[in-house]
Design brief:
By secondary structure, the chain is of the alpha/beta class. The chain has 2 domains: 2-45 and 99-205, Ribosomal Protein L4, Chain: A; 47-96, no CATH class. Helices cover 33% and strands 15% of the residues. The protein is built from 7 helices and 6 strands. It has helices at 21-24, 30-44, 103-119, 136-145, 161-167, 183-188, 196-205, and strands at residues 2-7, 13-19, 123-126, 152-156, 173-177, 191-195. Strands 2-1-3-6-4-5 form a 6-stranded mixed β-sheet, sandwiched between helices. α5 (161-167) links the parallel β4 (152-156) and β5.
């Protein structure tokens, strides 16, 4: 077992929380972290790029000149790919870039990302992240009191719409809830701000 200190919103120590060493203190493989990041980025691609083929370009319905007898090369349409204003022969077409990454690999990569944060002392655990009033200034004050500067990822294990609404206007601050935590966001942000309930749940689910 591994212990991580717990604070209140005013940055006063309130105790410790025990987490599984298999989740927060395991061997880190950079190649697996890279694979998980590439997998996440691929799944986020829209894949809506599109160029027109010779069948989709307007015009070119009439044969420019007769097949034989002109001395020029034979051609059937002014919209073939080698002509100006012609279609694109091998241009990009709409596609799905996502692919499957094994569930074990995803879980191990998430464990490694949490291990990196824990070893760099970039995990801040607070008693609760529930906000009574969904005000941006309340979340900004909490981050300032905790001394969190730079990009901060806030994670709560339960749905917390007030927190998400209050933090979305803060630059460099992102909120992840339920099972929305991913390797890319963990490595992108400088800090992980998490509730006591959230870190206990991660420790149980990811072991």
């Amino acid at each position: 077992m591994l212990t991580i200190p717990v604070r209140d919103r005013e940055n006063n120590p309130t105790g410790e929380v025990e987490v599984k060493a298999s989740v927060f203190d395991r061997n880190v493989k950079r190649t697996l972290l890279h694979e998980a990041v590439v997998h996440y980025q691929a799944s986020q691609r829209q894949g809506t790029h599109k160029t027109k083929t010779r069948a989709e370009v307007s015009g070119g319905g009439r044969k420019p000149w007769r097949q034989k007898g002109t001395g020029r090369a034979r051609v059937g349409s002014t919209r073939n790919p080698i002509w100006r204003k012609g279609g694109i022969a091998f241009g990009p077409q709409p596609r799905d870039y996502s692919y499957r990454l094994g569930s074990k690999k995803q879980r191990h990569a998430l464990q490694m990302a949490l291990t990196v944060k824990q070893r760099d002392q970039q995990i801040v655990v607070v008693d609760t992240l529930q906000v009574e009033v969904a005000k941006t200034k309340e979340v900004a004050k909490m981050l300032a009191d905790l001394g969190l500067e730079g990009k901060t990822l806030i994670y709560d294990s339960s749905s917390n719409e007030g927190l998400a609404r209050a933090a979305r206007n803060l630059p460099g601050v992102s909120v992840s809830q339920d099972f929305g935590l991913n390797v890319y966001d963990l490595l992108l942000h400088d800090w992980l701000l998490i509730s006591r309930e959230g870190i206990e749940r991660l420790s149980e689910v990811l072991q």
